[in-house]
Amino acid sequence: MIARTTGAAIRGLLVALLVLTPALYLPASTSNGTEIVVFLAILAFILTFAEYNSAFPSFIEFRDAPPVNRLRFVGLMSMISFLTLICKNAYAPTELTSTVYSVGWVVSDVLDFPYSPVRLVVLMLPADASQNLVELVRVSASIAYVAALVTVASFAYAVKLRKWPTGNGAFNVWTNLPLFDPTKGGDVVTRLQRDGRLNISVGVLLPFLIPALIKLLTDFIDPLSLSNPQTLIWTMSAWAFLPASMIMRGMATLRIAGLIVEKRRAYSTTETTQTA
User: Fold this and answer.
1) So what's the pLDDT on residue 214?
2) What does the DSSP 8-state code read for residue 147?
3) Confidence of residue 271 (pLDDT cuts 50, 70, 90)
4) Could you tell me the sign of the dihedral formed by the alpha carbons of 50, 54, 60, 65, in that order?
5) 267 burial class (0-12, 13-18, 19+ CB within 10 angstroms)?
6) How many Å apart are CA 83 and CA 106, to the nearest integer?
7) pLDDT tens by residue, 24-48
8) Rounded mean pLDDT of 220-237?
9) Tell me, what's the pLDDT at 39?
């Protein structure tokens, strides 16, 4: 009980720190921006603590199947931290921020090619955007996209080479997939495979579709003001992290479906041997 409560509190503090990181290093966007960020951090702490301190799952998936959520957190925290340093370099440069910005510039030269997700994000900006803003968005999008790719690759390594989730004991579908109802109509394996392929397909397409959709809607709504550093950080992080999270979920569900098929095959072989 004590270990579970302590672990839940630590997770809650880490998530709250993630929410606070841009506000700790960058100026507030509005007069009451600090109060809003603190409120969101407290809310994130309460939700995370309540989820991990409870024996019954609610909405967080794979909470007892590390390293899925750990990789998600590290990936998102990396995006937020690097983008915060990049944005800080624009008004209060230091040796660290200049180094990170230089690395981001080199990465953007590699990823900014025609029809790439980074190029589409840059084209999403209004025509009157300043050159400094274009460069900042270009570098931020490149760093966020690389962090997302590394996160997905790390989970692929865990699945393929570390044989996730068999190394963590028995996989409890109810605890780790609380939003998935195995009693609903249709074969469980077929549904898991369909959900996995759908998540991977949508996750791959989203980095291309989101900038295009925002560009199409600029005639009807005002585009997001990416000139605000905190808005830029959270927008670029969401653009890169949500697709990566969906791809990871798709890989995980396909892996679970494969394990179920292996169990069925082994059980069928055992029954055949006993009958013979």
Assistant:
1) 83
2) H
3) low
4) positive
5) exposed
6) 15
7) 888 766 556 678 889 999 999 999 9
8) 80
9) 93
Mean pLDDT for 144-171 is 90
Token reading at 28: 């507030």
Give me the helix-helix angle, 68-88 and 131-160, nearest 10°. Answer: 160
Angle CA 164–170–174, to nearest 5: 100
Tens of pLDDT, residues 125-150: 888 888 999 999 999 999 999 999 99
CA distance 188 to 192: 6
Residue of higher predicted confidence among 266 and 137: 137
Nearest to 239 by CA among 216, 213, 200, 221: 213
Q: Give the pair of three-digit tokens for residue 229.
A: 């550093």
The closest of 159, 153, 154, 175 to 259, measured between CA atoms, is: 159
> Rounded to 5 degrees, what are φ and ψ at 3?
-65, -40
Q: Which two tokens stand for residue 218?
A: 């600029």
Distance of alpha carbon 40 from the chain centroid? 18
Rounded-to-5 percentages of helix, strand, coil across the chain: 75, 0, 25
Give Cβ neighbours of residue 84 (< 8 Å, ≥ 6 apart). Answer: 21, 22, 25, 26, 233
